[in-house]
Amino acid sequence: MIYLKQNEELYNNDIRAMLQAFFDNEKVSVKKEDTRLSLLVEYTPDSHTDMQTRVGKAVTFLLEDEAGYRDSRTVVTDFYDKKQARNPLKAALYHLLSAYTGHTLPWGSLTGVRPTKIATELLEQGQSDAEIRKVYTDTYLTIPQKAEICIEVAKREQELLQAYHYEEEYGIYIGIPFCPSRCLYCSFPSYSIEGYRDRVEDYLHALRREIEFVASSEVYRQKRLVVVYVGGGTPSALSAGQLETLIAVIRQSFDFTYVREFCVECGRPDSITPDKLHVLRQAGVGRISINPQTMSDATLSLIGRAHTVEQTKEAFALARQAGFTNINMDMIVGLPGEGMEEVAYTLSELEKLKPDSLTVHSLALKRASNLKIELSRYQELIRGSTNEMLLAVDACARSLSLFPYYLYRQKNIPGKLENIGYAAKGKECMYNILIMEEKLDILAMGAGASSKFVFHRENRIERVENVKNVDAYMTRIDEMIERKRNMFLNVAAYERV
Predict the structure, then answer these.
(1) What is the pTM of this model?
(2) Taking the mean position of all CA atoms in its chain, how far away is CA 300?
């Protein structure tokens, strides 16, 4: 446990994030008891100023441990000016912690979830690649490879987003919170399809009510629907008949004239059958995802995925035979018990299948996951993702002519690395980019679904959340509809101004 003492808390979130970046899974406490390491943060103001004209003068970070180690860094800056002071302060703390641990971090002092945003903003300002690279490496202390990939992703996003007119368009997300089994690392609302078999129809009935209400909104009937994403859970856990009915409801409710992308997350190979693939193809679904996560049967068993590597290969072959030319595959690096050797083997097997896109997640220890809840049981097996693994992924993807098109980071990833999507040209998932960039309204329906409404003139985003629990969603569906009704009224009033 780490003891943190500050005489002000101006940069509390930044300081805690940096500590967590260096000390995975270690708690930060404001009490000294049972702590092995202390970080004291002293803000010293300019003594010649009054409260009306406050000016910060210096910030000192002092690090001490039980063995007598002691080191400090001082930054002279106006610390009340957060825009100007944040990066120098984080850099000083980074150097202090790096010297103590003997480690550096690929992302340096960057702790945000969207590191590509920096490159996007600098490109819009007309800065060159060399100038942007220098900002990443000198200001944020990233390794050059992270700077390069941020520039590459930002440029690709800019190119892809040119076709969208945010204020005139919108997307929809339909959530199916059922899976064949619950994965060890999963924190999403997800329920066993077998355990809920007798209530799936009730869920789909409630979902249909929400879909039809959203589709009837006057404000959105005047806009163009451009992306449709059916996710979960595992939508293909539904029967072929249920899938056919659900997609018919979606297509009958919304105008698909301008839809550029229709994705369905099949996810679990053991949920994929020829008749379900036929339903999806007939309904005009263009992109599906078949997610092995790993090509190790031993790991699949450990993490609670009730399918084999052979089933993954069979499902992929069935999808190709059904005519799908845009198939994504997900993998996770840093799974329990897996190191570089296992990751390399998974990549070699995926390379043989030649997916059209590859989405790679660094394992995150999410609070609601069984992995986090039972962490002591799996602690010795978790080595976490490494940059070496991600470099191997990058090399494999590029060998398949798949190139990075979106990137983000999450909290609770050991090593604080990234999640990244690779795709062949023209096979990118635009929903992934749009939900990340938060420039397009996304109307989300189903248990646990979160709608995003973008108020462009005010540069703000509002969210409308549905309850996560399936039973609560079904019994409270009128409340879910009412939440959206109120937001639609707000959107309509905003657009009349």
Answers:
(1) 0.93
(2) 22
